[in-house]
Amino acid sequence: MQLTEVTDVLAARRQRPEKFGAMVACSVAAHAGVIALLLFGPFDWNLVAEEPPRTVMTISLAGAPGPRAGGMTPMGGRAVPQPTPEKPRAVPPPPPKPKATPAPTAPVRRRQPQPKPAPEEEPQPGVTRTETGARGQGFGLATGGAGGSGVQLDVANFCCPEYIEQMVTLIQRNWQSNQGVSGSTLMKFTITRGGSIQGVMVERPSGFVALDLAAERALLLTRLSELPVQFPNPTLTVHLTFEYRR
Amino acid sequence: MHTRGSLLLALQVQGDGTPFAGSGDLIRLIADTTPINQAVLAVLIIFSIASWAIILQKLWSFRASARDTSRFLDVFRRSTKFSEVQAACPSLTATPLVGVFQAGYAEMNAQFRAAGGGNPAPSSPSTGAARPTLKSLDGVDRALIRAATNEIAKLERRMTFLATTASVTPFIGLFGTVVGIMIAFQRIGATGSTNLAVVAPGISEALIATAAGLFAAIPALVFYNSFTHRVKELSATMDDFALEFLNIAERNFT
Q1: Cross-chain residue pair B147–A13, CB shorter than 8 Å
Q2: Is residue B116 part of a domain?
Q3: Residue B121 — pLDDT band, cuts 50, 70, 90?
Q4: Which of residues 24 through 43 in chain B touch A, CB cutoff 8 A?
Q5: Which residues 61-90 in chain B show a CB within 8 A of chain A?
């Protein structure tokens, strides 16, 4: 084509195809691929959610230890005892009318047979729950004692508060909490069905080796009883924070 | 010194076998968003598709242009006649220098035809035969400037859409997020719970819109800056070529 005028040249240049339609098709295909990859690809979008929710039980030992440090009383979410149904009392039969007999020579006192009292029934736990502010299905545990020392636990997923009481008491016996510095060590360990503590590890160190070692020592020295029969799982993993306060 | 300690205890029962429900699942996350958020996502996807189409087309165009520019300059500098250069032009159409050259060549032809009563155009800048003379070198200059402007406009075509995508899509995404958070807070108020499990999913859904806005905006901005730089480079190359063309025309046809 002979382009004789500048305007013709410019017009011809403007009309040159640019393959934009093909690029739109490529872009649509690429977006479809990326979206499909994001939706159905091997990416794990549940990284954070995979970990099951962990219920934290807080044990605070502020103040002087009471007479029964470590002793704990269930207080949270307790079941209200159900009133036992009243049984109809057995009405004693009326005394037999005395026969018209000659007066006895010697008065004989006969004891009237007393009805045996029915054995008292144990109050059964009811459906109603007291509102104590404890979260979850759990229970609270509190030490008695002077000085305002208190221990509170809040647990879901564990059946037996007594076992936790016992465990904390035993660990506290072996724990040298007087280290002269403040710090917090998070320990992780597993209690097997037989009651042995395994897999003791420092989950979050305190920054002081002495504090971490004291916590680890307390766990290693502790001997626990077997896991409760009501607890069906083979092991119980515990995350326990040892908080040292100056 | 009396040290008091406290214990913080967390129990984790092993072997529960109850995997946590995948609330972070992306499909469900998008499906759970509000209709406004879904509309915002659709708009952002359209923006992204269009901007990537432009990006791909420009990448292809600039790559071909760079290849043809070097070839054209090689042909132009080795040729002894403008007609040889003109003959090579149809195979090197990707470079904007072809447009500039053809415009200058057409203007010179027009001037020679006007001066010589329809004689053919100059075939060579260095032939010894009866040499045609340019009537106006300024006219050739203007033709070259027109062509260069035309080529720059063509190079910059659709780049404004990239700039618009880069600047607007974050705001569109932000709009979706703000609306999503508003609705999430309404839900939180309705449930009356400040639990993180109630608060977090709504905010997470709302933030998808911002993420999609940035997904569309970031490539658009990066490539807009890159293409602007390339257009400036090609513009400088065209200016340089136009001056070279004028010099040759002035030396041989005035």
Answers
A1: yes
A2: yes
A3: low
A4: 24-27, 29
A5: 61
Report which of residues A93 and B162 the model is more confident about.
Answer: B162
Test the A interface: residue of B8, B9, B162 with most A CBs within 10 Å: B9
B-facing residues of A in 59-98 (CB < 8 A) are 59-63
Judged against a pLDDT cut of 90, whether residue B194 lies above it is answered with no
Question: Would the CB atoms of A158 and B13 count as touching at under 8 Å?
Answer: yes
Q: pLDDT of A39-88, one tens digit each? A: 777 766 654 444 454 544 544 443 344 444 443 444 444 444 555 556 66
The answer to whether the pTM exceeds 0.90 is no
> In chain A, what residues touch B1 (CB-CB under 8 Å)?
178, 180, 246
Within the 109-148 window of chain B, which residues sit less than 8 Å (CB to CB) from chain A?
109-110, 113, 143, 146-147
Residue B157's domain comprises: 32-253
Is residue B16 situated within a structural domain? Answer: no
Residue B61 lies in a domain: yes
B57/A contact by beta carbon, under 8 A: yes
Helix (H, G, I), strand (E, B) or coil at B221: helix
| Nearest CB partner across the interface for B9, out of A47, A179, A238 | A238
Q: What pLDDT, on the 0 to 100 scale, is given for residue B171?
A: 97
User: Is the Cβ–Cβ distance between A193 and A200 less than 8 Å?
Assistant: no
- Burial class for A153, CB neighbours closer than 10 Å (0-12, 13-18, 19+): buried
Segment B130-187, tens digit of pLDDT = 677 888 889 999 999 999 999 999 999 999 999 999 999 999 999 999 998 888 888 7
Residue B187 lies in a domain: yes
Checking if the pLDDT of B224 tops 60, the result is yes
Chain B contact set for A30 (CB, 8 A): 52
Name the CA dihedral angle for A156, A161, A165, A170, rounded to a multiple of 10 degrees: -80
Residue A159: burial class (beta carbons within 10 Å; 0-12, 13-18, 19+): middle
Q: Is residue B119's pLDDT more than 80?
A: no
What's the total number of domains in chain B? 1
Q: What pLDDT score does B141 carry? A: 93
Among B3, B7, B193, B205, most A C-beta atoms within 10 A, so best to mutate, is: B7
Q: Which pLDDT value is given to residue B5?
A: 55
